[in-house]
Amino acid sequence: MKTGVAWITRLNPASYRVQRTLTHTPQVVDQIIELGHKPARAKPIIVRLIEIRRENTWYRYITSVTNPVDLPPYIVADLYGRRWHIETAFGLVKRLLKMSYLWTGSINGIKLQIWATWLFYAVLIDVADTVANELEIEAENISIEMLFRSFYHFNHASNRELDHGLIADLTSPKNRDLGIVKYQPKSRFRDPLDLSPYPT
Questions:
Q1: How far apart are CA 97 and CA 91, in angstroms?
Q2: What distance in Å separates the CA atoms of residue 140 and residue 110, rounded to the nearest whole number?
Q3: Is the same domain home to 53 and 115?
């Protein structure tokens, strides 16, 4: 944390020594531990071990953030669950926004294409956030692909002077069939996100 960089990962079976227990409930165990404490081994490191129970399974995470006020236990699990978002973003840009094809062979043209594509992607994410706020749902429940494809319908409505603004049209009940909001089946593994540093 001194350098402004922290990490989160899953903990495989390992030997460690508990230094301090921060939280211990039937659902959450949060501890400061010492990894590599055995003699004649590598220098031990102090990390935080978070164990969260979902149904009958315990999930174990370790992080370099040892202060639970800075990073509550459920936030650790939630962040780890989002670890593939950068890969999905690259996949979406390549497939949906056609970044997998280069329009020119010149270095300057390639740079312009990359810059313009990522700039448009940032605008697309910003529109998705705004739509999610208007609908009072989480942004991850918005389908970026269907949102992008809905621009075609908005453009036709705009040409016929039937639009009331992009966000108003995208959030209108009559346009729910555009599929912008993902179908969310109830998951028995989804815990409510607890922002408390010491869950009870």
A1: 10
A2: 30
A3: no
List the one residue out of 124, 169, 129, 119 whose CA is nearest residue 147.
124
Pairing mode, strands 8-10 and 57-63: antiparallel
Q: Which two tokens stand for residue 122?
A: 């940032």
Question: Which one of 31, 65, 81 terminates a domain?
Answer: 81
- Please give the residue range of the domain that contains residue 56: 8-81
CA 57 to mean position of chain CA atoms: 22
Q: Do 89 and 164 lie in a common domain? A: yes
Q: How many domains does the chain have?
A: 2
Instruction: Decide: 139 and 147 in contact? Cβ < 8 Å.
Output: no
3-state secondary structure of 169: helix
- The answer to the question of residue 188 being in a domain is no
Contacts of 140 (CB under 8 A, 6+ apart): none
pLDDT tens string 138-197: 888 898 999 998 888 787 776 666 656 788 888 888 878 888 888 766 654 455 678 888
